[in-house]
């Protein structure tokens, strides 16, 4: 019923607007007739005298002269751009030519000396009272805001005038974005549910911009942080309270040439006035771009409409005052409320599942809403439930299986150029380690599972944010199972694991390594991934004695890493072949250290017993003889896989002969000699 009432009110306003516009155009027609009649009576009269005569007639009050309603679209437009009475008449004359063929014909008749037949400044000066030369200048509202277009002609005063199409539509009460801005300036989505901490930021923006009525310039609002969706929602909510529309513009879409940039900004400024709009600038440039930096600086300085800038990091704006606000992810309690709101009654029937989601995933408002809608859209199959949830939460509801998997996808960072997501398939049974090492790995999993209870419910986080990150160092020679153990932990926790490509992270350029590390940790802050820094001693080696600037910056890289490791909300694992290469100061800040020993004979037997998948055909294999090869688990896996390929190519099951050939190839790769004792009796096992 309310929507119907709004439609009816809009229709009434459109009718009233049309009535006042037509009445105003009647006056234009009368003045044109008077101008034509004046020319016919005094053909020899000089132009200034004719203009004065027409002006006198036009300025004389008549009973039929309409008074435009203050709510009419064109009256509001006049006020928006501060048009004088003469400028209003010029604009109305140009609109009349487009809306009424009679007015167009009268304009041509009133100035037979021009061939284009359009209104001119000469004609306007002759017709209307209160004429002034200032109205014709480029800085005056008519031309500055491109309300009219001045065509070609022998002189400025005889050039044809046209009303801009966007302004003509506004005259008719239709407000829509200028075609020339489409694709660059995009309407921001309507704000959705806001948590309390974000509502506080909305209030700060409203307060900062509430000074507009006092005549003070509006400060630029800068929203910083990695939660892009929340920043846009906060900006949209603030503009909604201030009765402003909001448009977004990406920095990558800004023209870098002055010839393109100046007209674009002028058009936007006009649009902002017409629509009572604010601009949200998305500063998402990830690399140096001098030309674009110049364009952004010019935009920030030149645009006078309300402006918000969203970026991951704080920016400097020397051109204008700025208010900087940090936008963080919703707190744990706020995320819990968001999940409960999104899931409804299901949240209370989840047997603590929602609390477990909050403890593991640090998601934004938008991500939580999207995940809930997607998860509740379909029920998972029974057989998939056990595979989708961590081992300790299988008692949770059926829909939790789908929701957990969706949250994993929502939390996946965009790290394709710096990290590789690996899909581990190993389980605890595949991991051959002494019991002591396995116990430490299970402790790591327990810390990840229970961190919310210990940090939030039991109050450890209130003691300070340092040292809350869960970090582990896996040390041991290559092939002893360090990467496999990281995969087993990820499988246990049902999380993704990302292996960091250190060659892409470490840079010889000063400051670049910190930027790359920041990208890694910031992207992973959703908490749904395990970060695996493989062979980390190359990056986290002993801090060197400061001898030059490069040593000093290398130490700064290590210090930065220490800070991020301590603050990271997920699990970060470092692997090294040489534990002694790690700085002792760094070791003190690692919560768990797991030593992966070189497998002894008994361990190698277990590895050989488990190395082949159950579906692999084998014949006559002897794990005890195979374990005489004094190699690590990684080498054993290589030999087993190579032997499988040899057997498959021969259309045979895997046998000792295939393993012997594969072992010889692996030893050549290792540049080692195979002793007779290691392969004694293998040939007889054919």
Model description:
- It is a single chain.
- With 686 residues, the protein is an alpha/beta fold.
- It has 5 domains: 12-176, no CATH class; 180-326, 3-Layer(aba) Sandwich (Rossmann fold); 332-411; 428-595, Rossmann fold (3-Layer(aba) Sandwich), CATH 3.40.50.300; 601-685, Helicase, Ruva Protein, domain 3.
- The chain is 50% helix and 9% strand.
- It has 28 helices and 14 strands.
- The protein has a 6-stranded mixed β-sheet. Strands 9-11-12-13-10-14 form a 6-stranded mixed β-sheet.
- The longest helix has 40 residues, at 2-41.
- The termini are far apart.
- The relative contact order is 0.05.
- Mean pLDDT is 82; it is low at 44-68, 379-387 and 544-550.
Question: Can you summarize this structure?
Answer:
By secondary structure, the chain is α/β, with parallel strands linked by helices. The protein contains 28 helices and 14 strands.
């Amino acid at each position: 019923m309310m929507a119907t009432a709004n439609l009816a009110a809009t229709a009434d306003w459109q009718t009233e607007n049309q009535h006042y516009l037509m009445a105003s155009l009647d006056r234009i027609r009368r003045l044109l007739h008077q101008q034509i009649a004046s020319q016919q009576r005094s053909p020899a009269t000089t132009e200034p005298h004719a203009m004065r005569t027409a002006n006198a007639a036009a300025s004389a009050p008549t009973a039929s002269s309409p008074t435009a309603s203050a709510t009419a679209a064109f009256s509001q437009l006049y006020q928006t751009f501060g048009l004088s009475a003469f400028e209003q008449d010029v604009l109305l004359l140009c609109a009349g030519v487009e809306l009424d063929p009679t007015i167009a014909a009268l304009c041509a008749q009133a100035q037979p000396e021009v061939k284009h037949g359009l209104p001119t400044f000469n004609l306007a000066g002759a017709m209307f009272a209160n004429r002034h030369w200032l109205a014709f200048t480029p800085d005056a509202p008519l031309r500055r805001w491109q309300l009219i277009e001045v065509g070609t002609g022998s002189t400025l005063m005889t050039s044809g005038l046209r009303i801009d199409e966007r302004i003509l539509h506004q005259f008719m009460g239709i407000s829509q974005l200028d075609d020339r801005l489409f694709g660059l300036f995009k309407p921001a989505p309507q704000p959705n549910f806001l948590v309390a901490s974000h509502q506080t930021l909305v209030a700060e923006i409203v307060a900062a911009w509430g000074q507009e009525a006092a005549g003070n310039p509006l400060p630029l609002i800068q929203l910083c942080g990695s939660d892009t969706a929340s920043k846009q929602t906060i900006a949209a909510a603030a503009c909604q309270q201030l009765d402003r529309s909001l448009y977004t513009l990406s920095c990558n879409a800004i023209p870098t040439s002055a010839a393109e940039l100046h007209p674009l900004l002028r058009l936007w400024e006009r649009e902002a006035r017409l629509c009572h709009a604010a601009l949200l600038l998305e500063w998402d440039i990830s690399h140096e771009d001098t030309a674009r930096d110049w364009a952004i600086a010019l935009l920030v300085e030149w645009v006078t409409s309300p402006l918000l800038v969203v970026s991951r990091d704080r920016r400097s704006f020397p051109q204008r005052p700025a208010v900087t606000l940090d936008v963080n992810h919703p707190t744990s309690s706020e995320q819990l409320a968001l999940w409960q709101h999104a899931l409804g009654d299901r949240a209370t029937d989840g047997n603590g599942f929602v609390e477990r989601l909050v403890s593991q995933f640090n998601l934004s408002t938008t991500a939580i809403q999207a995940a809930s809608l997607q998860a509740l859209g379909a029920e998972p199959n029974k057989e998939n439930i056990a595979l989708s949830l961590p081992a300790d939460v299988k008692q949770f509801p059926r829909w939790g299986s789908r929701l957990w998997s969706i949250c994993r996808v929502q939390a996946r960072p965009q790290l394709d150029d710096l990290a590789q997501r690996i899909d581990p398939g190993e389980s605890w049974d595949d991991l051959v380690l002494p019991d002591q090492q396995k116990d430490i790995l299970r402790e790591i999993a327990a810390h990840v599972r229970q961190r919310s209870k210990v940090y939030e419910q039991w109050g450890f986080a209130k003691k300070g944010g340092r040292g809350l990150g869960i970090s582990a160092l896996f040390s041991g020679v290559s092939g002893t199972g360090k990467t496999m153990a990281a995969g087993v932990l990820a499988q246990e926790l049902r999380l993704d694991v990302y292996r960091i490509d250190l060659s892409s992270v470490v840079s010889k350029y000063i400051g670049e390594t910190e930027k790359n590390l920041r990208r890694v940790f910031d992207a992973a802050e959703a908490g749904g991934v395990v970060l695996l820094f493989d062979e980390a001693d190359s990056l986290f080696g002993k801090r060197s004695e400061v001898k030059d600037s490069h040593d000093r910056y290398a130490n700064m890289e290590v210090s930065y890493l220490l800070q991020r490791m301590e603050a990271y909300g997920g699990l970060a694992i470092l692997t090294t072949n040489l534990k002694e290469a790690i700085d002792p100061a760094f070791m003190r800040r690692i919560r768990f250290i797991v030593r992966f020993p070189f497998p002894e004979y008994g361990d190698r037997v277990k590895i050989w017993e488990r190395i082949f998948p159950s579906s692999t055909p084998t014949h006559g294999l002897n794990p005890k003889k195979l374990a005489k090869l004094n190699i690590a688990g990684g080498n054993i896996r290589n030999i087993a896989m190579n032997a499988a390929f040899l057997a498959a190519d021969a259309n045979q099951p895997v046998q000792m002969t295939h393993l012997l050939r594969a072992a010889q190839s692996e030893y050549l790769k290792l540049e080692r000699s195979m002793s007779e004792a290691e392969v004694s009796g293998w040939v007889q096992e054919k």
